[in-house]
Every structure is written in structure tokens, then in C-alpha cells.
Write a structure and sequence with these properties.
Blueprint (H helix, E strand, L loop, with lengths): L3 E6 L9 H9 L8 E6 L6 H4 L4 E8 L8 E4 L1 H5 L11 H13 L6 E8 L11 H4 L2 H14 L2
Parallel strand pairs: 1-2, 1-3, 3-5
Antiparallel strand pairs: 4-5
Length: 152
């Protein structure tokens, strides 16, 4: 899909928190060449230029909502706004949602934003994904490919 960006969020030094980066690396060469792949790390608002002019943005991230490690979720910013108050949904909750809000205020927000996230097992210091979270990589990559193909 032209005008699509896929941004992996996370910190590779903190175990499962690096999931988004691992997923983007796995997607290289498996998406149409016009889809931009970004290793967003923990850049937050510094990712704003990657959204400008895009029709669709797909964020891949880790979250901790107390479910089984490796569980995969797909949601939009609108769905998150409707969630009850409580602990942050994403390990990077503030940065990502501030990024989306800033893009909206500046008129640079893609019309479609999707988050695909995996429940972490742990985010302790260390670069390896847990077995449960690593097992979610094929599912997440398939979901991203489907999102890109549908152009929703």
C-alpha cells in the first residue's frame, strides 16, 4: 500500500520490550517496497516525520496488561480512548499516544492508525525475547502483511 509506514517500537536492551524492533527486522523484504519500515526504538515524538504524508501507520509494540505472555492484540487509538482508566496499555503508552495526538494537531496524522502488540513476559535487562513472545512473531508479521494488503 503506497503511503504506509510500519513502525516497530521498543528497547532491545530490555528483553520482550524490544518486540517491535524484532518484528520490523523480520518483515524486511516481505512487504511491498513502497511500505516504509522504521525501527522506532523509544523515540516517541521524534517519529512524527515518519507519519507525515502517510495514509496508514501500523505500530508494533509490547504491552503489559497482565494477560498470558505472547498474547497478541490489534487495536486503534479510538479503542484505547474508550478503555477504562488504569495502568498504561503499552510499555510506551505516553510516547505513542502523544505522537498520535501531535500528528492530529498538526494535520499530519494518517487516516488509519493500527497498533499490533504482544503481551510481554518480562522486560528485564537483556536482549533476548522470551520463548512465548518470540513465538508470537509469525502471527504479528502475518497481521501486518494483512493490514498492508487490505489498505484499510
Amino acid at each position: 500500500m503506497p503511503g504506509c509506514v510500519v513502525i516497530g517500537i521498543g528497547n532491545l536492551l530490555h528483553g520482550d520490550d524490544g518486540f517491535g524492533i524484532h518484528a520490523v527486522r523480520l518483515l524486511r523484504g516481505k512487504l511491498p517496497e513502497e511500505v516504509e519500515l522504521v525501527e522506532g526504538g523509544v523515540l516517541g515524538l521524534d517519529l512524527l516525520p515518519y507519519l507525515e504524508g502517510k495514509k496508514k501507520a501500523i505500530f508494533i509494540d509490547a504491552l503489559d496488561i497482565g494477560e498470558d505472555a505472547g498474547a497478541v492484540y490489534r487495536f486503534s487509538p479510538d479503542q484505547v480512548k474508550q478503555r477504562p482508566a488504569g495502568p498504561p496499555l503499552s510499555v510506551h503508552d505516553l510516547g505513542l499516544y502523544e505522537l498520535v495526538n501531535a500528528a492530529q494537531l498538526l494535520g499530519q496524522c494518517p487516516r488509519s492508525i493500527i497498533f499490533i502488540a504482544v503481551q510481554v513476559k518480562g522486560v528485564e535487562l537483556g536482549g533476548e525475547l522470551s520463548e512465548e513472545v518470540r513465538a508470537a512473531l509469525p502471527t504479528v508479521c502475518r497481521m501486518v502483511r494483512e493490514e498492508v494488503q487490505t489498505g484499510r
